[in-house]
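Example record

The entry below shows one chain as it appears in the dataset: sequence first, then structure tokens.
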Amino acid sequence: SLSHTLLWVIVITGAVYGVAALASQFVGGLTLQSAMLIAFALSFSSTVCVVKVLEESGESKTRHGRLAIGILVMQDVFAVIFLVAATGKLPSVWALGLLALIPALPFIHRIINQSGHGELLPLTGFILALGGYNLFELVNIKGDLGALIFGIMLAQHEKSTELAKSLMSFKDLFLIGFFLTIGLTALPDMNMIILSLVFCLFIPLKAGLFFGLFTALRLRGRTAYLASLVLSNFSEFGLIVGALAVSLGLLANTWLVIIALAVSISFVFTSVVYRNSHSLYNKYKDAIKRFEKQTRLKEDVYPTLHNAEFLVLGMGRVGKGAFNALAKLGDVNVWGMDADRLKVKQMNSEGHNVIVGDGEDVDLWDNLDLRNVKLILLALPSIQDAINIKRQLTNAGYTGKVAAIARYEDEVQELLNHDIDKVFNFFTEAGLGFAEESLAYVDAPRA
């Protein structure tokens, strides 16, 4: 992440400075320092956009998804450090008292445990975030750092994921308000729109830098391609950096509006292009794989299936239930697959045959022995993922049966139209199973 930021700032500073010089009569010129600030602001990738895209595609736990989120975390840390340093304020002597937060961590975790799962949970999150912000401000430290520190302290809590999901809608709302505030600073004219489109021409370069660095670190071509593609947008954090530069008199309001327009356009670009990322990889995979290194990382070595007859994709509640039901048959060899390494490790420790894999990875299917597999069950929440995986299986020469789940009746028909052999309506089948189990209990002889 640091290498990408440094390379990006070096390359883009000159480009921004040149573009500003050509357009100086329309939007005002830039100093070299201001050009560096804009390049730095554009170096960030959007946490909101990337997480949203990965969650919608069900890829937040995949290899490239975890890589992208890790890069975003590092970028957010860089942004907060910059915001703290840019204010030029020295902490007061009372800042040493912040060390008391370490022994107070169990008490904070206890508060979260007592907040339940309803409205109190997001309210507790707000109190901790805003409290951390104001606590650091009291000792003359930028409040953003306080909010970040509190977030790090809560990350290891068992309810951290639930808390993050409960706050996500508020985060989206605040982001809309922030964009609205930026928009009120100046009315965009045609010159600003053109310049923002020029900035968007840097998006392929941003993706290319990420791809080059990832492949240099011996990541697989597909992982590098997907991660660099989803990280190729500009960030709302860049707007925060730009807004701070405007408040310090280092940047004109017009440039902040231009950055905001470029950020918005980049969101649209990522959402549209990433939707077709897997089909694009299938088309250009030979060209992409030429950049791979000969030696692979341990995590990128393809797993093996030993005489598997049934394969369950997705070890969530439905997938794990299907896996256990098949395993109870006794005379069949059942294997599972999931992109979450921690979940796979846990199931392996319980004695189950589960491998790490992304079902949409065509290279994975090309390297798996599927000759003995009779049935593949797609226990996935997204029907688009199921359709893509069915296509990958067909391309890999798989001739067995494929079953999938759906939540709505129209999804059932769509899956059947894409050659899925059997589709189970999740809610209908769950109700049927519940009724059958209940009737069996009623009909069972009493002791």
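Notes for this example: The beta strands are 310-313, 334-338, 354-356, 375-378, 401-406, 422-425. The chain has two domains: 2-289, 305-443.
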